[in-house]
Specification:
There is one protein chain. The N and C termini lie far apart (68 Å). The radius of gyration is 23 Å and the shape is globular. The protein has two helices and 34 strands. The strands form nine sheets. A four-stranded antiparallel β-sheet has the order 1-26-25-24, with no helix packed on it. It has a four-stranded antiparallel β-sheet with strand order 2-3-4-5, with no helix packed on it. The chain has two domains: 368 residues, TolB, C-terminal domain (Neuraminidase), CATH 2.120.10; 102 residues, Immunoglobulin-like (Sandwich). It is mainly beta. Bound molecules: calcium ion (2 copies). The site of one calcium ion (CA) has 6 residues, from loops.
Length: 496
Protein backbone atom coordinates (compact mmCIF):
# COMPACT_ATOMS: atom_id res chain seq x y z
CA UNK A 1 0.00 0.00 0.00
CA UNK A 2 1.29 3.42 -0.86
CA UNK A 3 0.86 6.22 1.66
CA UNK A 4 -2.55 7.84 1.74
CA UNK A 5 -2.81 11.19 0.01
CA UNK A 6 -2.96 13.31 3.12
CA UNK A 7 -0.30 11.61 5.24
CA UNK A 8 2.17 14.19 6.49
CA UNK A 9 5.76 13.24 5.82
CA UNK A 10 8.69 14.17 8.01
CA UNK A 11 10.26 17.32 6.64
CA UNK A 12 13.83 16.41 7.59
CA UNK A 13 13.63 13.47 5.22
CA UNK A 14 12.56 15.76 2.39
CA UNK A 15 15.80 17.74 2.46
CA UNK A 16 17.88 14.61 1.96
CA UNK A 17 15.58 13.37 -0.78
CA UNK A 18 15.95 16.66 -2.59
CA UNK A 19 19.71 16.17 -2.71
CA UNK A 20 19.34 12.64 -3.94
CA UNK A 21 17.06 13.76 -6.76
CA UNK A 22 19.63 16.20 -8.08
CA UNK A 23 19.30 18.73 -10.86
CA UNK A 24 16.77 19.10 -13.62
CA UNK A 25 17.42 17.15 -16.84
CA UNK A 26 20.10 18.57 -19.13
CA UNK A 27 18.98 21.39 -21.39
CA UNK A 28 16.15 22.44 -19.10
CA UNK A 29 16.52 25.96 -17.79
CA UNK A 30 15.77 26.22 -14.08
CA UNK A 31 13.45 29.14 -13.49
CA UNK A 32 15.05 30.10 -10.24
CA UNK A 33 13.54 33.58 -9.99
CA UNK A 34 10.04 32.23 -9.52
CA UNK A 35 8.94 32.18 -5.90
CA UNK A 36 5.80 31.60 -3.87
CA UNK A 37 4.07 34.62 -2.37
CA UNK A 38 1.87 33.95 0.65
CA UNK A 39 -1.79 34.88 0.20
CA UNK A 40 -3.37 33.38 3.32
CA UNK A 41 -2.28 31.20 6.24
CA UNK A 42 -4.02 29.54 9.17
CA UNK A 43 -6.48 27.55 7.11
CA UNK A 44 -7.79 24.19 8.32
CA UNK A 45 -6.54 21.51 5.87
CA UNK A 46 -7.32 23.38 2.65
CA UNK A 47 -7.72 21.14 -0.41
CA UNK A 48 -8.66 23.55 -3.20
CA UNK A 49 -8.83 27.19 -4.24
CA UNK A 50 -10.84 28.61 -7.12
CA UNK A 51 -12.76 31.65 -8.32
CA UNK A 52 -16.37 32.33 -9.26
CA UNK A 53 -15.59 34.03 -12.62
CA UNK A 54 -18.13 36.69 -11.66
CA UNK A 55 -15.85 39.72 -11.83
CA UNK A 56 -15.62 39.97 -8.03
CA UNK A 57 -12.02 38.67 -8.04
CA UNK A 58 -12.74 36.73 -4.86
CA UNK A 59 -10.99 33.46 -4.06
CA UNK A 60 -12.92 30.52 -2.63
CA UNK A 61 -11.01 27.99 -0.53
CA UNK A 62 -12.34 24.51 0.29
CA UNK A 63 -11.32 23.06 3.64
CA UNK A 64 -11.41 19.30 3.95
CA UNK A 65 -13.66 19.23 7.04
CA UNK A 66 -16.50 20.83 5.05
CA UNK A 67 -16.05 24.57 4.99
CA UNK A 68 -15.73 26.92 2.04
CA UNK A 69 -14.08 30.23 2.84
CA UNK A 70 -14.20 33.37 0.73
CA UNK A 71 -11.28 35.77 0.44
CA UNK A 72 -11.83 39.31 -0.84
CA UNK A 73 -9.21 40.68 -3.26
CA UNK A 74 -6.21 42.01 -1.35
CA UNK A 75 -7.42 40.54 1.96
CA UNK A 76 -5.66 37.84 3.95
CA UNK A 77 -8.62 37.18 6.28
CA UNK A 78 -11.14 34.82 4.73
CA UNK A 79 -14.70 34.48 6.01
CA UNK A 80 -17.03 31.48 5.96
CA UNK A 81 -19.05 31.13 2.74
CA UNK A 82 -20.54 27.68 3.43
CA UNK A 83 -20.26 25.26 6.34
CA UNK A 84 -21.43 21.68 5.74
CA UNK A 85 -19.14 20.02 8.29
CA UNK A 86 -22.19 18.29 9.82
CA UNK A 87 -22.75 16.41 6.54
CA UNK A 88 -19.13 15.68 5.62
CA UNK A 89 -17.15 12.63 6.68
CA UNK A 90 -13.57 13.93 6.68
CA UNK A 91 -10.12 12.50 7.33
CA UNK A 92 -7.52 10.66 5.26
CA UNK A 93 -8.68 11.01 1.66
CA UNK A 94 -12.25 11.85 2.66
CA UNK A 95 -13.89 15.21 3.12
CA UNK A 96 -15.08 18.16 1.10
CA UNK A 97 -12.91 17.55 -1.95
CA UNK A 98 -14.21 19.63 -4.85
CA UNK A 99 -15.93 22.93 -5.67
CA UNK A 100 -17.02 24.46 -8.98
CA UNK A 101 -19.00 27.58 -9.77
CA UNK A 102 -21.60 27.53 -12.53
CA UNK A 103 -20.42 29.47 -15.61
CA UNK A 104 -23.40 31.82 -15.06
CA UNK A 105 -22.90 32.02 -11.28
CA UNK A 106 -23.03 35.80 -11.40
CA UNK A 107 -26.68 35.64 -12.45
CA UNK A 108 -27.89 32.26 -11.11
CA UNK A 109 -25.79 31.98 -7.87
CA UNK A 110 -25.36 28.20 -8.40
CA UNK A 111 -22.27 26.29 -7.30
CA UNK A 112 -21.44 22.63 -6.85
CA UNK A 113 -19.55 20.58 -4.28
CA UNK A 114 -18.09 17.07 -4.15
CA UNK A 115 -17.80 15.49 -0.69
CA UNK A 116 -17.86 12.18 1.14
CA UNK A 117 -20.89 12.07 3.40
CA UNK A 118 -21.58 10.96 6.93
CA UNK A 119 -21.92 8.23 7.96
CA UNK A 120 -21.15 5.88 5.05
CA UNK A 121 -18.43 7.78 3.13
CA UNK A 122 -20.38 7.75 -0.14
CA UNK A 123 -19.50 10.47 -2.64
CA UNK A 124 -22.09 13.24 -3.00
CA UNK A 125 -22.26 15.76 -5.83
CA UNK A 126 -24.57 18.54 -4.66
CA UNK A 127 -25.70 22.02 -5.63
CA UNK A 128 -25.88 25.10 -3.43
CA UNK A 129 -26.60 28.78 -4.06
CA UNK A 130 -25.13 32.02 -2.82
CA UNK A 131 -27.57 34.17 -0.87
CA UNK A 132 -29.39 36.71 -2.99
CA UNK A 133 -28.91 39.28 -0.23
CA UNK A 134 -25.24 38.57 0.51
CA UNK A 135 -22.89 37.20 -2.17
CA UNK A 136 -20.35 36.22 0.51
CA UNK A 137 -22.64 33.67 2.13
CA UNK A 138 -24.36 30.58 0.76
CA UNK A 139 -27.90 29.34 1.34
CA UNK A 140 -28.12 26.25 3.55
CA UNK A 141 -30.43 24.36 1.19
CA UNK A 142 -28.84 21.49 -0.74
CA UNK A 143 -29.93 19.84 -3.99
CA UNK A 144 -28.33 16.43 -4.28
CA UNK A 145 -27.42 15.58 -7.88
CA UNK A 146 -25.60 12.30 -7.67
CA UNK A 147 -24.31 9.85 -5.06
CA UNK A 148 -21.73 7.13 -5.59
CA UNK A 149 -21.20 4.40 -2.98
CA UNK A 150 -17.55 4.01 -1.93
CA UNK A 151 -16.36 0.46 -1.17
CA UNK A 152 -13.18 1.65 0.61
CA UNK A 153 -12.10 4.86 2.37
CA UNK A 154 -9.44 5.91 -0.15
CA UNK A 155 -9.45 6.94 -3.85
CA UNK A 156 -12.52 9.17 -3.78
CA UNK A 157 -11.46 11.35 -6.69
CA UNK A 158 -13.07 14.65 -5.78
CA UNK A 159 -12.52 17.14 -8.59
CA UNK A 160 -15.32 19.19 -10.13
CA UNK A 161 -14.89 21.64 -13.01
CA UNK A 162 -17.04 23.10 -15.75
CA UNK A 163 -15.70 22.53 -19.25
CA UNK A 164 -15.75 24.97 -22.15
CA UNK A 165 -18.94 23.15 -23.25
CA UNK A 166 -20.74 24.30 -20.08
CA UNK A 167 -21.01 20.76 -18.72
CA UNK A 168 -19.86 19.68 -15.26
CA UNK A 169 -16.94 17.25 -15.20
CA UNK A 170 -16.48 15.01 -12.13
CA UNK A 171 -13.43 12.92 -11.19
CA UNK A 172 -14.05 9.61 -9.41
CA UNK A 173 -11.41 7.25 -8.01
CA UNK A 174 -11.48 3.49 -8.45
CA UNK A 175 -13.17 3.00 -5.08
CA UNK A 176 -9.99 2.33 -3.16
CA UNK A 177 -7.96 -0.36 -1.43
CA UNK A 178 -5.00 -1.14 -3.76
CA UNK A 179 -4.76 -2.38 -7.34
CA UNK A 180 -8.50 -1.86 -7.96
CA UNK A 181 -9.62 -5.23 -6.52
CA UNK A 182 -13.13 -4.87 -7.95
CA UNK A 183 -11.78 -4.00 -11.43
CA UNK A 184 -14.07 -0.98 -11.37
CA UNK A 185 -12.06 1.49 -13.47
CA UNK A 186 -12.47 -0.72 -16.57
CA UNK A 187 -16.15 -1.48 -15.82
CA UNK A 188 -18.30 0.98 -17.77
CA UNK A 189 -21.38 0.01 -15.76
CA UNK A 190 -19.80 1.63 -12.68
CA UNK A 191 -19.14 5.31 -12.03
CA UNK A 192 -15.86 4.66 -10.18
CA UNK A 193 -12.47 5.13 -11.85
CA UNK A 194 -13.90 7.63 -14.34
CA UNK A 195 -14.22 11.20 -15.50
CA UNK A 196 -17.98 11.85 -15.61
CA UNK A 197 -19.69 14.62 -17.58
CA UNK A 198 -23.20 15.88 -16.81
CA UNK A 199 -25.41 18.76 -17.91
CA UNK A 200 -26.71 20.53 -14.79
CA UNK A 201 -28.98 22.88 -16.77
CA UNK A 202 -31.31 20.23 -18.20
CA UNK A 203 -32.94 17.82 -15.71
CA UNK A 204 -34.04 14.54 -17.26
CA UNK A 205 -36.20 11.59 -16.25
CA UNK A 206 -36.60 12.69 -12.63
CA UNK A 207 -32.85 13.31 -12.20
CA UNK A 208 -31.73 16.89 -11.54
CA UNK A 209 -29.25 16.59 -14.42
CA UNK A 210 -28.93 14.93 -17.81
CA UNK A 211 -26.07 13.29 -19.67
CA UNK A 212 -24.86 14.92 -22.89
CA UNK A 213 -25.91 12.74 -25.87
CA UNK A 214 -22.32 12.60 -27.12
CA UNK A 215 -21.06 10.93 -23.95
CA UNK A 216 -19.56 7.62 -25.16
CA UNK A 217 -22.05 5.27 -23.44
CA UNK A 218 -25.12 7.47 -23.79
CA UNK A 219 -28.54 5.88 -24.18
CA UNK A 220 -28.80 2.38 -25.66
CA UNK A 221 -25.02 1.90 -25.73
CA UNK A 222 -24.10 -0.40 -22.82
CA UNK A 223 -22.53 1.53 -19.95
CA UNK A 224 -23.42 4.44 -17.70
CA UNK A 225 -24.59 7.51 -19.55
CA UNK A 226 -22.63 9.86 -17.24
CA UNK A 227 -19.19 8.47 -18.22
CA UNK A 228 -16.93 10.70 -20.31
CA UNK A 229 -13.66 8.74 -19.96
CA UNK A 230 -12.53 5.69 -17.98
CA UNK A 231 -9.61 3.55 -16.83
CA UNK A 232 -8.49 6.04 -14.17
CA UNK A 233 -7.17 5.19 -10.71
CA UNK A 234 -7.59 8.40 -8.75
CA UNK A 235 -7.74 11.54 -10.90
CA UNK A 236 -7.56 13.78 -7.82
CA UNK A 237 -7.08 17.04 -9.73
CA UNK A 238 -7.82 17.95 -13.34
CA UNK A 239 -8.23 21.22 -15.20
CA UNK A 240 -9.05 22.73 -18.57
CA UNK A 241 -6.53 24.76 -20.57
CA UNK A 242 -8.20 28.18 -20.85
CA UNK A 243 -7.01 28.63 -24.43
CA UNK A 244 -7.18 25.20 -26.04
CA UNK A 245 -9.91 23.67 -23.86
CA UNK A 246 -7.78 20.54 -23.38
CA UNK A 247 -8.52 18.56 -20.21
CA UNK A 248 -5.35 17.74 -18.21
CA UNK A 249 -5.65 15.17 -15.42
CA UNK A 250 -3.09 14.08 -12.84
CA UNK A 251 -3.89 10.42 -12.18
CA UNK A 252 -2.39 9.18 -8.92
CA UNK A 253 -0.47 5.92 -9.33
CA UNK A 254 -0.15 2.78 -7.22
CA UNK A 255 3.43 1.91 -6.24
CA UNK A 256 5.40 2.83 -9.34
CA UNK A 257 4.29 5.70 -11.57
CA UNK A 258 2.43 9.02 -11.51
CA UNK A 259 0.89 10.21 -14.75
CA UNK A 260 -0.55 13.16 -16.63
CA UNK A 261 -3.30 12.44 -19.13
CA UNK A 262 -5.07 14.50 -21.75
CA UNK A 263 -8.64 13.31 -21.27
CA UNK A 264 -10.77 12.98 -24.41
CA UNK A 265 -14.31 11.76 -25.02
CA UNK A 266 -14.44 7.97 -24.62
CA UNK A 267 -10.76 7.61 -23.79
CA UNK A 268 -9.61 4.58 -21.75
CA UNK A 269 -6.55 5.50 -19.67
CA UNK A 270 -5.53 1.94 -18.85
CA UNK A 271 -5.90 1.40 -15.10
CA UNK A 272 -5.74 -1.33 -13.69
CA UNK A 273 -4.13 -2.96 -16.70
CA UNK A 274 -1.47 -0.28 -16.92
CA UNK A 275 0.10 2.06 -14.37
CA UNK A 276 1.49 4.78 -16.62
CA UNK A 277 2.95 2.76 -19.52
CA UNK A 278 3.94 -0.10 -17.20
CA UNK A 279 1.94 -3.35 -17.33
CA UNK A 280 0.67 -4.01 -13.79
CA UNK A 281 0.21 -7.78 -14.30
CA UNK A 282 -3.28 -7.47 -12.80
CA UNK A 283 -4.62 -8.48 -16.23
CA UNK A 284 -1.47 -9.45 -18.17
CA UNK A 285 -3.43 -10.72 -21.16
CA UNK A 286 -4.66 -7.18 -21.85
CA UNK A 287 -1.29 -5.47 -21.82
CA UNK A 288 -0.66 -6.04 -25.51
CA UNK A 289 -4.14 -5.02 -26.59
CA UNK A 290 -3.23 -1.42 -27.48
CA UNK A 291 -6.71 -0.28 -26.53
CA UNK A 292 -5.52 2.32 -24.06
CA UNK A 293 -4.46 5.95 -24.24
CA UNK A 294 -0.98 6.49 -22.82
CA UNK A 295 -0.23 9.42 -20.53
CA UNK A 296 1.43 12.47 -22.09
CA UNK A 297 3.96 12.38 -19.23
CA UNK A 298 4.79 10.13 -16.28
CA UNK A 299 7.36 9.90 -13.52
CA UNK A 300 8.55 7.07 -11.32
CA UNK A 301 8.56 6.84 -7.54
CA UNK A 302 12.18 7.91 -7.19
CA UNK A 303 13.45 9.90 -4.21
CA UNK A 304 10.22 9.63 -2.22
CA UNK A 305 7.88 10.79 -4.98
CA UNK A 306 4.58 8.99 -4.56
CA UNK A 307 1.44 10.96 -5.48
CA UNK A 308 0.81 13.49 -8.24
CA UNK A 309 -1.20 16.62 -7.56
CA UNK A 310 -2.46 17.70 -10.98
CA UNK A 311 -2.36 21.42 -11.73
CA UNK A 312 -3.07 23.94 -14.46
CA UNK A 313 -1.76 25.25 -17.75
CA UNK A 314 -0.56 28.81 -17.12
CA UNK A 315 -2.43 31.33 -19.30
CA UNK A 316 -2.13 34.45 -17.18
CA UNK A 317 -0.68 37.74 -18.38
CA UNK A 318 1.88 38.42 -15.61
CA UNK A 319 4.50 35.92 -16.82
CA UNK A 320 4.60 34.51 -13.28
CA UNK A 321 5.12 31.14 -14.98
CA UNK A 322 6.11 30.29 -18.56
CA UNK A 323 3.08 30.84 -20.78
CA UNK A 324 1.49 27.51 -21.76
CA UNK A 325 3.43 25.44 -19.19
CA UNK A 326 1.49 22.83 -17.20
CA UNK A 327 2.38 23.12 -13.49
CA UNK A 328 1.89 20.19 -11.09
CA UNK A 329 3.43 18.73 -7.95
CA UNK A 330 4.24 15.61 -6.03
CA UNK A 331 2.34 15.55 -2.74
CA UNK A 332 4.93 13.44 -0.95
CA UNK A 333 8.09 15.37 -1.86
CA UNK A 334 6.70 18.92 -2.18
CA UNK A 335 8.40 19.35 -5.55
CA UNK A 336 6.66 21.53 -8.12
CA UNK A 337 7.19 20.59 -11.76
CA UNK A 338 6.59 22.09 -15.18
CA UNK A 339 5.64 20.18 -18.32
CA UNK A 340 6.60 22.09 -21.47
CA UNK A 341 6.65 20.63 -24.97
CA UNK A 342 6.66 17.12 -23.52
CA UNK A 343 9.60 17.76 -21.18
CA UNK A 344 9.27 17.68 -17.39
CA UNK A 345 11.45 19.85 -15.20
CA UNK A 346 11.55 20.75 -11.52
CA UNK A 347 10.43 24.33 -10.95
CA UNK A 348 11.12 24.32 -7.22
CA UNK A 349 11.31 22.08 -4.17
CA UNK A 350 9.18 23.05 -1.21
CA UNK A 351 8.48 21.84 2.31
CA UNK A 352 4.76 21.91 1.51
CA UNK A 353 2.38 19.00 1.24
CA UNK A 354 0.64 20.33 -1.87
CA UNK A 355 -2.98 19.25 -1.90
CA UNK A 356 -3.96 21.30 -4.95
CA UNK A 357 -3.40 24.14 -7.33
CA UNK A 358 -6.04 26.68 -8.29
CA UNK A 359 -6.63 29.68 -10.54
CA UNK A 360 -7.95 33.18 -10.01
CA UNK A 361 -10.07 35.04 -12.55
CA UNK A 362 -6.97 36.30 -14.39
CA UNK A 363 -5.44 32.85 -14.71
CA UNK A 364 -2.77 33.38 -12.05
CA UNK A 365 -2.00 30.07 -10.34
CA UNK A 366 -2.10 29.35 -6.60
CA UNK A 367 -0.55 26.56 -4.52
CA UNK A 368 -2.54 25.01 -1.67
CA UNK A 369 -0.61 23.48 1.24
CA UNK A 370 -2.62 21.05 3.34
CA UNK A 371 -0.79 22.52 6.37
CA UNK A 372 -2.99 25.62 6.03
CA UNK A 373 -1.63 27.88 3.29
CA UNK A 374 -2.53 29.34 -0.07
CA UNK A 375 0.34 30.91 -2.02
CA UNK A 376 0.71 32.35 -5.49
CA UNK A 377 3.51 32.14 -8.06
CA UNK A 378 5.50 35.32 -8.40
CA UNK A 379 8.29 36.10 -10.86
CA UNK A 380 10.12 39.34 -9.95
CA UNK A 381 12.05 39.35 -13.22
CA UNK A 382 9.06 38.61 -15.43
CA UNK A 383 9.27 40.28 -18.81
CA UNK A 384 5.88 41.07 -20.34
CA UNK A 385 5.51 39.60 -23.83
CA UNK A 386 6.33 42.03 -26.64
CA UNK A 387 3.71 43.42 -28.98
CA UNK A 388 3.23 41.97 -32.43
CA UNK A 389 0.76 42.57 -35.22
CA UNK A 390 -1.21 40.81 -37.91
CA UNK A 391 -2.27 42.81 -40.95
CA UNK A 392 -4.80 40.80 -42.96
CA UNK A 393 -6.73 37.53 -43.01
CA UNK A 394 -8.72 35.56 -45.56
CA UNK A 395 -10.58 32.26 -45.79
CA UNK A 396 -9.97 29.59 -48.41
CA UNK A 397 -11.17 26.08 -49.22
CA UNK A 398 -8.71 23.45 -47.99
CA UNK A 399 -9.10 21.07 -50.94
CA UNK A 400 -8.15 23.46 -53.75
CA UNK A 401 -7.03 26.68 -52.05
CA UNK A 402 -9.79 28.77 -53.65
CA UNK A 403 -10.42 31.95 -51.66
CA UNK A 404 -13.93 32.84 -50.42
CA UNK A 405 -14.39 36.45 -51.41
CA UNK A 406 -16.74 37.59 -50.03
CA UNK A 407 -16.98 35.06 -47.17
CA UNK A 408 -20.41 33.40 -47.39
CA UNK A 409 -22.32 30.90 -45.25
CA UNK A 410 -21.11 27.32 -45.74
CA UNK A 411 -22.79 24.36 -44.05
CA UNK A 412 -19.50 22.58 -43.35
CA UNK A 413 -17.02 25.09 -41.99
CA UNK A 414 -14.53 22.30 -41.37
CA UNK A 415 -13.59 22.22 -45.05
CA UNK A 416 -12.16 25.72 -44.88
CA UNK A 417 -9.11 27.33 -43.36
CA UNK A 418 -8.13 30.82 -42.37
CA UNK A 419 -4.86 32.42 -43.47
CA UNK A 420 -3.48 35.24 -41.34
CA UNK A 421 -0.60 37.44 -42.48
CA UNK A 422 1.92 38.47 -39.87
CA UNK A 423 2.96 42.11 -40.14
CA UNK A 424 6.67 41.42 -39.74
CA UNK A 425 8.38 40.23 -42.88
CA UNK A 426 10.99 38.23 -40.98
CA UNK A 427 9.86 35.07 -39.16
CA UNK A 428 9.98 35.23 -35.35
CA UNK A 429 10.73 32.22 -33.14
CA UNK A 430 7.83 33.24 -30.86
CA UNK A 431 5.40 32.68 -33.73
CA UNK A 432 6.37 29.01 -34.02
CA UNK A 433 3.57 27.15 -32.25
CA UNK A 434 1.29 30.21 -32.13
CA UNK A 435 -2.47 29.67 -32.09
CA UNK A 436 -5.05 31.44 -34.26
CA UNK A 437 -8.18 32.27 -32.26
CA UNK A 438 -11.47 32.85 -34.05
CA UNK A 439 -14.16 34.30 -31.79
CA UNK A 440 -11.98 33.16 -28.88
CA UNK A 441 -11.82 29.53 -30.02
CA UNK A 442 -8.31 28.10 -30.44
CA UNK A 443 -7.71 26.47 -33.81
CA UNK A 444 -5.14 23.93 -35.03
CA UNK A 445 -2.54 26.24 -36.49
CA UNK A 446 0.55 25.92 -38.68
CA UNK A 447 3.11 28.68 -39.08
CA UNK A 448 4.49 28.86 -42.58
CA UNK A 449 7.56 30.96 -43.20
CA UNK A 450 8.60 29.77 -46.65
CA UNK A 451 6.16 31.94 -48.54
CA UNK A 452 6.96 35.03 -50.57
CA UNK A 453 6.13 38.24 -48.72
CA UNK A 454 5.33 37.72 -45.05
CA UNK A 455 5.12 34.61 -42.88
CA UNK A 456 1.55 33.32 -42.47
CA UNK A 457 -0.50 31.41 -39.92
CA UNK A 458 -2.82 28.78 -41.43
CA UNK A 459 -5.56 27.38 -39.20
CA UNK A 460 -8.38 24.90 -39.77
CA UNK A 461 -11.83 26.32 -39.13
CA UNK A 462 -14.35 24.37 -37.07
CA UNK A 463 -17.71 23.25 -38.42
CA UNK A 464 -20.03 25.98 -37.06
CA UNK A 465 -17.75 28.91 -37.84
CA UNK A 466 -19.11 29.62 -41.32
CA UNK A 467 -22.63 28.24 -40.73
CA UNK A 468 -24.38 31.54 -40.03
CA UNK A 469 -23.92 35.16 -41.06
CA UNK A 470 -21.97 37.23 -38.57
CA UNK A 471 -18.53 38.47 -37.60
CA UNK A 472 -15.39 36.41 -37.18
CA UNK A 473 -13.00 38.08 -34.77
CA UNK A 474 -9.47 36.90 -35.54
CA UNK A 475 -6.38 37.17 -33.35
CA UNK A 476 -3.14 35.25 -32.86
CA UNK A 477 -1.66 34.14 -29.55
CA UNK A 478 2.09 33.56 -29.54
CA UNK A 479 3.85 30.94 -27.43
CA UNK A 480 5.22 33.67 -25.15
CA UNK A 481 1.70 34.91 -24.38
CA UNK A 482 1.78 37.93 -26.72
CA UNK A 483 -1.61 38.62 -28.31
CA UNK A 484 -1.89 40.29 -31.69
CA UNK A 485 -4.29 43.03 -32.69
CA UNK A 486 -7.76 41.84 -33.73
CA UNK A 487 -9.11 41.68 -37.27
CA UNK A 488 -12.72 41.03 -38.22
CA UNK A 489 -14.15 39.18 -41.20
CA UNK A 490 -17.83 39.40 -42.19
CA UNK A 491 -19.65 36.14 -43.01
CA UNK A 492 -22.48 37.01 -45.41
CA UNK A 493 -25.65 35.06 -46.21
CA UNK A 494 -25.10 32.66 -49.08
CA UNK A 495 -26.65 33.88 -52.36
CA UNK A 496 -28.25 30.53 -53.28
CA1 LIG B 1 -25.88 3.79 -21.67
CA1 LIG C 1 -3.25 5.45 -17.08
Amino acid sequence: MKPALFVFLCLCCLVQLADARGEAPAGVQLLTDITLETVVTGLDSPVYVTNAADGSRRLFIAEQAGRIKVLQPGSSSPTVFLDITSKVLAGGERGLLGLAFHPQFESNRRFFVNYTRRPDGATVIAEYRALMTNPDEAEAGEIMLLTVAQPFANHNGGMLAFGPDGDLYIGTGDGGSANDPGNRAQNVNELLGKILRIDVDHPSGGAPYSSPPDNPFFGAIAGRDEIFAFGLRNPWRFSFDRITGELYAGDVGQDAREEIDIITNGGNYGWRVFEGTSCTNSDPGLCSAGAFTDPIAQYKHNGGRCSITGGFVYRGSKSSLPFGAYVYADFCTGEIFLLQNGTQSQLMDTALSISSFGEDEDGEIYVVGIGGTVQRFHNPSAVPPGAFAIRSAFIRRRSDGVTLDPVTVKPNGKKFEIVVNESASVPSPASQGAIVLVNGVALNTDYTTNVPGTPIFVARLKRPMLATPGQLMVEVLRTDGARSNQLTLQVLPSVE
